[in-house]
Design a protein that fits this description.
The structure is a homodimer.
Chain A: H1 6-45, H2 50-57, H3 61-73, E1 77-79, E2 85-87, H4 89-111, H5 116-126, H6 132-142
The first copy, chain A, binds a DNA duplex through helix 1 and helix 3.
DNA sequence: TACCTTTTTTAGCCTAGACTAACTTTTGAT
DNA sequence: ATCAAAAGTTAGTCTAGGCTAAAAAAGGTA
């Protein structure tokens, strides 16, 4: 088969863009999850400790430490050795946006009649893949 | 802070499960994307070639080859050297399920009034994170 | 048939994110 | 104040999934 029609080429490019988007989202996902969780812990308990992150993420301390190093390198968190974790302004902004998306997706799933446990789990995965347009549609649907 | 209340511990575990799910989905995502695409290419053009996968996924030939080796190791595809790619029964089953989910999510987004391009892109990301319960809710919503 | 082009494969490299095990520092209770 | 437990850090390993560059095989055409 050697269909090099403009139609087919256009479609292939569009598809490549979609996958590209997903791969980029991928790289952001872990960062967003960490930042969101750090913000939650700070707001709820007053501080974010690596051990709590590890427990909530279901990974080891070492993994958390690793990832925090990356986030610090990217100026999203700050930390002093053996002390708890803080968000930079940039980190806080990403966390806030992620929390907003998370809530929106979860509430939307709940409004479809999905149980709370499932809505939480699915929202966790879906929130990273919803464009601004889709978020707007969800808001519209929820009458917000 | 040392809140070790049952309530908090339960919540932490639930959250860990959610993230665990997302990480597992992660590992499946690439496989599903490949298998879905291979099935599409076979159905549309009669065969799936690595070069077409690379073009559509927006990655290099070498990357495709790498990943196909993994899929073959996992008995999801078969291949003879320098020949095109085939799905095993297991691979076909995963591809079919992925295509069904993809269509459902896309159609659902379209039904919310989202434009086709955005619906395609977001569906590509979201399809891997929708549980059976959520899929059922989408079907219900679409009246299927 | 010969040869150029296309496609596939291999080799070698990189980063992220996971792990275990061992070590260091801090915290908190006696 | 001491010292054991908790928390954080480091070192070393692994896999997935990217990349580039180069080699090998297949395909198509003069």
């Amino acid at each position: 088969m050697n269909d090099t029609s403009p139609r087919r080429l256009r479609e292939a490019k569009r598809q490549a863009r979609s996958f590209e988007r997903v791969r980029q989202a991928h790289q952001r996902e872990v960062a967003e999850d960490y930042l969101e969780l750090i913000a939650d812990l700070i707001d709820i308990t007053g501080e974010a400790r690596a051990v709590d992150l590890a427990e909530r993420l279901g990974v080891t301390n070492a993994t958390v430490n690793n990832t925090l190093n990356r986030l610090a390198r990217e100026n999203l968190v700050t930390r002093q050795r053996y002390r708890s974790i803080f968000l930079t302004d940039a980190g806080r902004a990403i966390a806030d946006a992620a929390r907003e998306r998370h809530r929106l997706v979860r509430d939307f799933l709940l409004s479809l009649g999905i149980d709370r446990e499932t809505a939480e789990i699915d929202a966790e995965g879906i929130e990273h893949h919803t464009s601004e347009k889709t978020l707007a549609a969800l808001r519209r649907f929820l009458g917000r």
